[in-house]
Amino acid sequence: MIDVALRHRFGRGGFCLDAAFAAPEAGVTALFGPSGCGKSTILGAVAGLLRPQAGRVAIGGEVLLDTAARICLPPERRRCGVVFQDARLFPHLSVDSNLRYGLRRAPRDAPGPAFEEVVALLGIAPLLARRPAGLSGGERQRVALGRALLSRPRLLLMDEPLAALDAARRAEVLPFLARLRDRAGLPILYVTHALDEVDALADHLVLLDGGRVLAAGPVEALMARTDLPLLAGRRDAGVLLPCAVTGTEGDLIMLEFDGGTLVTTAHPGPPGTRLRVRVRARDVAVATEAPRGLSTRNILPVTLTAIAEAGEAGEVFLRLAAGPTTLLARVTRDSVSRLGLRPGQPVWALIKAVTFDHRAAGDATGEPPAWQGRRDGPY
């Protein structure tokens, strides 16, 4: 496990960080919250760039920081690869030389990918002779990621690496981050305030606000909670469903999940492709009788298990059980009263096939974007 417990105050009366969480020693743990909530401060303390007034950081039982025991390893001994918002490449060096700088910093006996592997993974072979000034923002971030990987870290820290990029460049970089998640086998702490990046990349989620941890756990479990305003208070609040492409029906794609089948006009990949998709609560309607004569294709028999506050006047969340899977529907209080909705009632969930986003991380081979969400297999 990655264990983090930190306390630090910036000046008298200044911002106070008091956060503790444990994260798996595999996959991507996203630190998510509004700007100024302490996400980057945590990364700085883990990397050794900030010495907190009190705290402990350990990876797999090895202690990097323990202020009570007076242990504080210097940054170079922590073996944390850091990727910042700005790429911070050496402007006078070529891409090749920037990458090899990371390789020179790697411990001799440390396992990790070879130079050629990293270049292929990130698709940067055509860039090797160029200098940073001649690269796009997305290309610079890919090179910065490659340099961090070649330092052979045991933990990769990414501080909003896409925040400075426009939508097109973000879509360019996301599939490479997904490749990294799937193939590198490194634990990653990923700071972001963009929910689509969480959807696409994260396995574990730490919610932060005001310097404190509000909740932490598997990302799919936290997304289904209605008591977390940082998530449930958003207009795009909803659940993440692990799905598998099972076939086609004309122009429609069949997505099977644990509790039923969805159809969509999006094309995430061939049969067998596994992915995770967001079903927004605002896109789910309910019916108390089996619907007939509708254009909506996704009509799922479900059980209404709870009615919860939605944080907006006149609105509530309905928790719906489709087998073992939870769906959320955002409806009006008037609908609850008019339909006589109550927990335990069998209803039907209605989801239009065209409501799933078509924006996507895309494919690193150059195929056009096709899906918004996370693929659980390699790109």
Architecture overview:
22% of the residues lie in helices and 35% in strands. It is built from 10 helices and 21 strands. The protein has helices spanning 39-47, 75-78, 95-104, 115-122, 137-150, 167-183, 195-201, 219-223, 229-232, 333-339; strands at 2-9, 16-23, 28-32, 54-59, 62-66, 71-72, 80-83, 155-159, 188-192, 204-209, 212-218, 238-249, 252-257, 260-264, 274-280, 284-287, 298-309, 315-322, 325-332, 346-351, 374-375. Helix 3 (95-104) runs parallel beside helix 5 (137-150), helix 4 (115-122) runs antiparallel to helix 5 (137-150) and helix 5 runs parallel beside helix 6 (167-183). The chain is globular, with a radius of gyration of 23 Å. The chain starts with a strand and ends with a strand.
Can you tell me the CATH topology of the largest domain?
Rossmann fold
Strand order of the largest sheet: 7-8-9-3-10-11
Name of the CATH first level of the largest domain: Alpha Beta
**Fraction in beta strands:** 25-35%
What's the CATH architecture name of the largest domain? 3-Layer(aba) Sandwich
Please provide a brief summary of the model:
With 379 residues, the protein is an alpha+beta fold. The chain has 10 helices and 21 strands.
Keywords:
alpha+beta, OB fold (Dihydrolipoamide Acetyltransferase, E2P), five-stranded antiparallel β-sheet, disordered C terminus, Rossmann fold, six-stranded mixed β-sheet, single chain, globular, 379 residues, 2 domains
